[in-house]
Fold each of these.
Amino acid sequence: MEQFKIHSNGWFAWQMIPGYMGERCVSYCSPIFVTNLKPLKTGKGLLRISFINVFYAEGVQDFSLDLRILKRAKDYLVAELDYGHEEESERTAIISHIEFGWIERFCPELWYHRPPSSTKAGTSSVSKYLDEVFGAKQH
């Protein structure tokens, strides 16, 4: 079975548990645009990922994080956010292919305020739609 791969200059779905709100385990979801990717040759399954987080509460932000890959499946991966400490992180991320259905389900405010029907891209391509809405370029 082919495993999910992340690549630079592409849109992906990001779910992080726990998120930034709630007292326990409210997840945070956002489309992300991956700008750089680098496997860290530590033998610990670490990957450095740089991305634009378009739904960050303080506005669109660039992030660079180390992820410890826990599971790779066909259409997603699960990773622990690695902050360089000896203890395990409390946060886990799921990165997957992004689809219109994912945006509708996990980003309802975007779907309501900027539905694909309101853009030139329409439903022809989720990447073109996100490029148009957020101004990121894939090339």
Amino acid sequence: MQAVSLSFFRFRTPLARLWALGMMGAARFALPKVDGIGFWKLCGSGTGEGFTPVPNTAVYAILSTWRDEATARRQVAHSRIWTRYRSRASEDWTVFLTPTSARGHWAGEAPFEVSQGAEPGPLAALTRATVKPAVAAKFWKQVPDISSVIGADANVIFKIGIGEVPLLHQVTFSIWPDADAMAHFARAPGGPHQRAIAAVREGGWFREELYARFAVTGDMGSWGGVSPLAKLPPLDLEATT
């Protein structure tokens, strides 16, 4: 069963941030050599809550698919490239996921293999889009409204905006306690999310789109001094530190 890891790293000092920026190029040579890895992407992040076009030079991410969760956990914990990132970072957190639905493509690939349907419990949502340059300004006018509503939603467990290319390649990632909580936000009639979706469809803003949901299976490390999954009710999650 395919597993997905999404690792976040926070870099405090200017020198560490410069190193992380350089690794956006250098790590491309190391990641394909990691045993068991499939699809992978290196991402930067946005400022504030992450849903902005202004880069946050302190936070970077690695998304990877693996042949199974045991391999994902082992390589995130012990492979040389992840160890190098942790040695420079002031903090890091990895969440482990299992795809439950996916449609669309990322850089021409369909990276997530769905092997089980949605189940009760916490879930994560990921949206990735390539924004057409001619409509990027219109797209980013919609994002602050969505961000403020997500930030005010007491149900959201974790949220961040990441991407490969500022302004044009955008990924939104969020974790919710259950499907009902996420659906309440996404489908609120007349809300900013619904308005943005309508504008995307009417204007054809995206050159490529991918939408995926995942079961949250565990985590490793901390973010802001704690595991974001600690906000969830007690569940059978295999968390490691």
Amino acid sequence: MKAEIIAQLRCADVVSGERLSQALGVSRVAVWKHIRQMQELGYKIEAGSKGYRLRSAPDTPFPWVFGQHADQVHYYPEISSTMDVAMDLARQGCPAFTIVVADRQTKGRGRLQRTWQSMLGGLYFTMVLRPRMPLVLAPLINLAAAVDLAIILEALYGIQARLKWPNDVLVEDRKLAGILSQMAAETDRIDYVNLGIGVNVHNDTRQVQPPAVSVCQLTDRPVSRADILAHFWERFEQRLRAGRWTDVVPQWKAQAATLGRLVKVQTLYDVFEGRAVDVEENGGLILEKEDGRRLTVVYGDCFHQ
């Protein structure tokens, strides 16, 4: 109902209550109740003698913002972790591209169980994926998500982002977004992958360590969390449905901030150091040691030295 109201209000400067009533198939009193609810949620909707006018909308990723995909979106003002809720939904058999999104997480986490600071104003979501791809190529999902997110941020806000292996989006070595994925798989197939993404959008990053930056600090354009999610969703879904995994590594390397640098990669049990010289076709990072020997690291937390 709210999705249709928004669609109608965006089609004209002023929309009468009668027109909304007919379009929605409900009484004008019911229309008014929905309008009131939306006003309480931050929509600036003026009511006059000729009807209703939408002045502005919050950037909150409410389900109805996504139109026909609204039933795939689970929105929470506050939640412990979008990943935890998405895990429950995935185990229950929810469809691919189900999304759990929150204004704030109280127990958000990054790689190796590190805390992800989830302050108000950021975009925090987990997308349930059910990709048809070889298990060995699963690491490409993180790289592909980073590529598509960087492309969207440039298209919407003119931000020139770079990518740190395997899961960060940076601007001048300051973290703009982070990506975390968790997978359930059998020997020969992937059951689901939960892709968690946190983007600094409006949140204050001045006290965050290591250094971070937000979208609103990098552009003069109006910034919307809902728009970022909607555009990323569209692009990333198209990529997964097309299944063009051979494109991912070349696209990632074209925007890489890691290649050519001395790095330290920390896993649960080991630490590897060397110069990052290339990325394998399955997404593994190739390191060159001081003695010229090379090794490949397929997962871990990467630190630029």
Amino acid sequence: MTERDTTSDAALSRAWHELQAALRAFFARRVAAADVDDLVQECFLRVSQGIAALREQDRLGAWVFRIARNLVTDHRRRHRTGDGEPLAGEDVIAAPDEPDANARVAEWLASMIGRLPAEYAGVLRESELHDVPHREIAERLGMSISGVKSRVQRGRAMLRDELLACCVLQFDARGRVHDYERRSCDSCDC
């Protein structure tokens, strides 16, 4: 084994330990303490089974925490009685501090749109926040409809990247945000 192999092995081992600590903290806030180790182990198992299919290696963290959120959701479903109440002995998981997490994240989006490049921010603001049809935006700006659609699509992608860099979001079945975990960032007002 070369010195370079030893160094990269040590770095990989350190990264896995840091990820394990982050996952333990993530699960500890959401499930009973007795279930944390099992969920961490299950998460690492799913990561090892699916890592070869991951296309964007720089999105590893977001992908791992998406697996973790899905595990929490599955765990909660398994541990509910028929009436939707937690089983006896299960810790009740508190809802986020905000009464409506979806509305809170929507507030962040408005300020985050303002941080995008001007050609995307204006089109995205009109389309998404004011529900102006693409045809009307195109007429106002003297652009083609496909040009407007392209800017909206690119703006959404930039906005999504900023939001995912800022927070880990958990969605309900309707696609509404029902929980979020804040990361340290300068992108939003969280």
